[in-house]
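Tokens for chain A. Residues wanted.
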């Protein structure tokens, strides 16, 4: 065999690989003479129409090494295989010319075994090309790591951070030049939380190449007030310690967790500059959205278009509450009507009155009108109406107590607004006798007061309660894993053709807004949902008088669900609360003793 000839077995073993035919500013590893591609910690941003490139060599002594860099797309399909040759090339411009790093004279005679081009993701030339081992990050994150650069995206060094660490970008000031520079590297997530807004952390590979936009903020929704223009308004105050002048705040107004929209279907968003801290909401936009929870959601955008995770304010329930929601016969009672919003009246004395009537006859229960008064301690407007129902006052057991439209009202927010109704219970001595069932954690205290444990992870949906009485009522919960703990994250209540859902299944402890959604197609909502001022307790009352209380633990995003079911509805009780058993039938799933599958619950809504 002549000197310079390539052995046959090397020719047969040589491999040529091309993974793509186009490239746009690929970020590639750029090294020469590394034992493995993973040993390379230098990167380069290739020009357009160049791909990441890897070449595998073998020395005369049999040692394997790799070269990594950029190569023109057109040249990726025309790469010579054989011994290395001397190239007259300037190392500074070799990337622009589509070549690899400068060859050393000692490399002459080394044999090229494999060439490969790739693109489509950053540093793709580390991912097992030419038979090299696939990168194992051991649970860590690849981050840029430079002590100081003029811009974060100028950094050309990378490192693999330890498991549990993320990528960090810090804005620093050089002690000699007094210039603002940027430092990149690894850091624990606890350290990130303690840093100021000149530091930003992220958790994906090579994410720390942006100017920090770590603006820490909070949002607070104030109480409603009447402005100088006579309109009822809310203020959303942004609380932040940042001194940055290159940020913009976007305030989205939400109702029950969903963006509030104008009559034209456009989301109501207020834009604030870095110097502004208060967004103002005109409650005229609440028309058709009363008896719900109002919040403001604040997002921050820095000058480099990077965004900070949004925050939600506290909630404020807007509308009128009526209590109690069910009254009894033969007992003198007061029905309290409370407005959480200022009531603007046409009356010279700012008096706004309300009366009540019987739904089935339209007759007034009383000719008196009861005026709202401002309660100084709560800041809310209330009135109390005395009611005495005798056994022969009504013609139908299903009668309800409804309110006349508010008189002398002078604000569009309440136009076409109907106050919540009050149900009148039948004249039954045992009407207010309830049976209780409570789901808490992984156990249920059922109607007979015994404890039923729920196996971890076995049920994703539980039918807590079902009755075959008319109207049919069902209560179901949804469960999921959250930080290795099974929690209840959704409650579904159905009675007749009406259904409601309370859901926190996609929420986190930092971004926590329970969503209430009516699922029935009918416009009539006989199920009443009341929410506490802090937004963490819901009381769902159905037409028959039974109620379901949902208490949400924000720390675990978990729900405790308590059912208070009128005894006359327990004939017999079904579901877990009634000790109903379920069987796991192969190919079908869990089926109750009455033959109903769990998924059938959702299909019964009309």
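Reply:
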């Amino acid at each position: 065999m002549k000197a310079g000839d390539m052995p046959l077995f090397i020719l047969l073993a040589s491999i040529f690989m091309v993974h793509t035919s186009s490239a746009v500013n690929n970020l590639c590893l750029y090294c020469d003479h590394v034992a493995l591609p993973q040993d390379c910690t230098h990167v380069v941003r290739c020009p357009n129409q160049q791909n990441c490139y890897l070449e595998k060599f073998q020395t005369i002594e049999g040692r394997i090494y790799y070269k990594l860099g950029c190569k023109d797309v057109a040249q990726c399909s025309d790469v010579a295989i054989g011994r290395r040759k001397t190239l007259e090339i300037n190392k500074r411009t070799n990337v622009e010319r589509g070549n690899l790093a400068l060859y050393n004279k000692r490399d002459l005679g080394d044999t090229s075994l494999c060439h490969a081009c790739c693109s489509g993701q950053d540093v793709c030339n580390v991912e097992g090309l030419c038979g090299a081992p696939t990168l194992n990050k051991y649970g860590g994150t690849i981050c840029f790591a430079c002590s100081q650069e003029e811009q974060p995206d100028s950094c050309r060094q990378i490192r693999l951070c330890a498991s549990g660490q993320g990528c960090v970008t810090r804005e620093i000031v050089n002690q000699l030049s007094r210039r603002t520079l940027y430092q990149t590297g690894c850091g624990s997530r606890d350290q990130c939380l303690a840093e100021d807004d000149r530091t930003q952390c992220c958790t994906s590979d090579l994410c720390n190449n942006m100017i920090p936009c770590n603006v820490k903020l909070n949002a607070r929704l104030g109480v409603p007030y009447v402005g100088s223009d006579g309109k009822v308004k809310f203020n959303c105050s942004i609380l932040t310690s940042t001194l940055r002048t290159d940020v913009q705040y976007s305030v989205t107004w939400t109702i029950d967790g969903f963006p509030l929209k104008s009559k034209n279907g456009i989301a109501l968003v207020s834009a604030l500059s870095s110097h502004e801290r208060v967004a103002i909401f005109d409650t005229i936009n609440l028309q058709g959205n009363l008896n719900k929870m109002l919040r403001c959601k604040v997002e921050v955008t820095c000058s480099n278009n990077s965004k900070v995770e949004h925050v939600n304010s506290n909630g404020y329930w807007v509308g009128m509450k009526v209590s109690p929601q069910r009254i009894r016969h033969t007992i003198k009672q007061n029905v309290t009507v409370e407005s959480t919003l200022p009531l603007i009246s046409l009356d010279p004395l700012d008096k706004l009155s309300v009366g009540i009537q019987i739904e089935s006859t339209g007759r007034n229960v009383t000719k008196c009108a009861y005026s709202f008064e401002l309660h100084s301690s709560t800041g809310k407007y209330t009135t109390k109406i005395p009611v005495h129902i005798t056994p022969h006052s009504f013609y139908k057991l299903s009668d309800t107590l409804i309110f006349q439209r508010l008189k002398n009202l002078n604000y569009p927010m309440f136009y076409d607004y109907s106050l919540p109704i009050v149900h009148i219970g039948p004249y039954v001595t045992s009407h207010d006798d309830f049976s209780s069932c409570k789901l808490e954690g992984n156990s249920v205290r059922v109607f007979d007061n015994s404890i039923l444990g729920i196996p971890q992870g076995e049920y994703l949906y539980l039918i807590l309660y079902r009755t075959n009485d008319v109207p049919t009522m069902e209560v179901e919960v949804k469960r999921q894993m959250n930080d290795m703990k099974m929690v209840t994250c959704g409650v579904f209540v159905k009675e007749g053709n009406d259904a409601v859902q309370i859901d926190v299944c996609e929420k986190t402890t930092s971004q926590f807004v329970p969503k209430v959604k009516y699922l029935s197609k009918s416009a009539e909502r006989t199920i009443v949902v009341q929410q506490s001022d802090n937004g963490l307790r819901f009381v769902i009352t159905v037409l028959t008088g039974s109620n379901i209380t949902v208490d949400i633990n924000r720390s675990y995003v978990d729900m405790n669900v308590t059912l208070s079911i009128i005894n006359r509805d327990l004939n017999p009780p079904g579901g877990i609360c009634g000790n109903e058993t379920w069987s796991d039938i192969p190919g079908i799933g869990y089926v109750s003793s009455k033959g109903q599958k769990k998924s059938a619950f959702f299909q019964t809504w009309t």
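DSSP finds four helices and 46 strands in the chain. The chain has five domains: 8-131, 142-202, 217-317, 320-424, 434-603.
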